[in-house]
Amino acid sequence: MTRINLFLLALLLVCALSLVTSRHQSRRLFVELERAQAAARNYDTEHGQLQLEQSTWGMPARIEKVARDTLRMQLPTSARTEVVGLTPRLEATR
Amino acid sequence: MKKAATRGATLRHTEPAPLVLPRLRSPLVFGMLALVLVGLATRSIYLGWIDNEFLQSQGSARHSRELELPAHRGRIVDRFGEALALSTPVKSLWAFPDKFVAPPEAMAELARILDTTPQKLRARLDANEDFAFLARQIAPEAAARAMALRIRGLHDQNEYRRYYPGGEVTAHIIGFTGDQDAGQEGIELSQQPWLAGVPGSRRVIINRRSEAVEDVAAVKPPQAGRDLALAIDTRLQYLAFRELKAAVELHKAKAGGVVILDVATGEILALANWPTYNPNRRDKVARERMRNRALTDVFEPGSTLKPFTIAAALDAGKVRPDTIIQTAPGTLTIGAHTIHDAHAEGALTVAQVIQKSSNVGAAKIALGLPPETLWTMFSEAGFGTTPKTGFPGEVGGRLRAARTWKPIEQATMSYGHGISVNLVQLARAYTMFATDGEVKQATLFKTEGHVAGRQALRPETARSVRAMLEAATQPGGTAPKAQVVGYRVAGKTGTAHKLEGRGYTNKYISSFVGFAPVSNPRLVVAVMIDEPSAGQYYGGAVAAPVFSNVTGAALRALGVPTDAPVNNVILPPDTVEIREET
Question: pTM, whole model, 2 decimals?
Answer without folding.
Answer: 0.81
